[in-house]
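Still learning folds. Look over my entry:

…
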Amino acid sequence: MPKALTPTHAYVPGKTPRHPEGCFDPIRDTARPGMTEQELAESAAFQTGVAYLEHGYFWEAHELLEPVWMVLPEGSDARLMVQALIQLANAHLKQKMDRPKAALRLCDIVHALLGQTDGGAIMTFDVAALLARVDSLAVELRYMH
């Protein structure tokens, strides 16, 4: 991840300071109504949000993926996938907050969202691989409590 895009820290409510209001707006603003699914998949909001998710910036990932989710067509596989990614980020964040039960509940939500899709590859993600990742997180969470 380019250094310029790396947040100064990962925000974890109750543990670390919140980022300044609006600091992610320039990236969020790259997801706009009327963009195609492909354009949204290539947007800085989606690409950086995914990178943040992969590098442990879970609250920040949610912030960037939300505007992508908001402009995707209601009921589309792409919208379900992005919502699943947001909830996966939330699950990881709850884990960091030492709230394994809440994180497990979010893992169930991710499963339900992905189960509504046709499967395969959506917005650069393989549904089966993402389900395996969620299952792995759920196993880890069960050992926490």
Summary: The chain has one domain: 24-144. The two ends are 33 Å apart (CA to CA). The first strand starts at residue 121 and ends at 122. DSSP finds seven helices and two strands in the chain.
